[in-house]
Predict the 3D structure of the following.
Amino acid sequence: MRLRNVTGSREMIAANDFVIHDENEHKGKWKEIFGNDNPIKLEIGMGKGRFIMDLAELNPDINYLGIEKYSTVLLRAIQKLEERQLPNVRFIRMDAEYICDCFDEGEVAGIYLNFSDPWPKDRHAKRRLESRQFLERYDHILAGDGRIEFKTDNRALFDFAVEEVAESAFEIKALSYDLHSDEKMMVGNVMTEYEERFSSQGNPICKYILERK
Ligand code: SAM
């Protein structure tokens, strides 16, 4: 995602109440942040955050944490959340590589991965959020019945992601190579910014849902 550099974005983020600043301090205690026992779901690589905010509005009994690596991108999400004032959403600026440092075993009820960066070079495969290395991290933090849902229009990334599942603790529960033509998998579909852009260009959207074997 390319955005102009917003001057002082780190400072603006540091001063914002919707952003969790000391994420490792909350390991095992995320329920305290929301003040209730509702399940906690993550979107990793949320970008400008429309998906997670729409989901949160539809599901007030679920808490959502949006994880984004870059301050300039996160700032856009914060501006939107300030307008929408959703009590069940918080953001974390972090690299998801370190996700096991801030969530306890089984603390997360679900993970969404939407239009993840493809990292096309083979030597960067382990940076892909759907790689076996990331699936192992998700295995640590996801509850027993937790699901991983992944959408992309990048067929090469999706094929890679499907292959990686065999090397993980998960199995594919549902899969589509053309989500928007799949009546069953489209039930309750919430569009992301990238999904809207690429599907309007005619690109088919791939999706899988994983559960534990
Ligand atoms: N999910 C959004 C959507 O579908 O509209 C944004 C997709 S954008 C292509 C991918 C986002 O993931 C970018 O904002 C990028 O900064 C973020 N990202 C990539 N790798 C990440 C990582 N390791 N940890 C956290 N965020 C990451």
